[in-house]
Methyltransferase domain-containing protein (Hibiscus sabdariffa), 139 residues
Amino acid sequence: MDTAQNPGSDHKKADPPKSVSAYLDPNYWNQRFSNEEHYEWLKDYSHFRHLIQAQIKPNSSVLELGCGNSQLSEELYKDGITEITCIDLSSVAVEKMKERLLSKGYEGVFPGCLLKFLLLFPSFCVFVLLEFDTRFNNR
């Protein structure tokens, strides 16, 4: 998806990886997110809002897989869904997300690295899992 498909994005077109398996490499994502402020892979929240609001209540606990530099957690928070955990393979994406959310005063949104999350919270309970386009292929 290029900037024309992602209006309002601060995305500078990133070079695609040399193979699909590179998407599993945190280093690819760290490099990409070091140079990219915001990008929505499919569409922004406004396209899914009516579907999400019909299913998710404000007191729900939400886990967003592969948060990257998306603004989904911020949009959910604005809609009253404030217990959100967003995780990603990229430590760069997680750190930038933490900074962005703290600067906006959002409490209850917890960015974290995927591996650390799985190790620290093996019995984590979540009511809603949001995943739009995370792919774990072994090709």
About this structure: Residues 1-11 have pLDDT under 50 and may be disordered. The longest helix spans residues 91-103. The helical segments are 26-34, 49-55, 72-78, 91-103, 114-120.
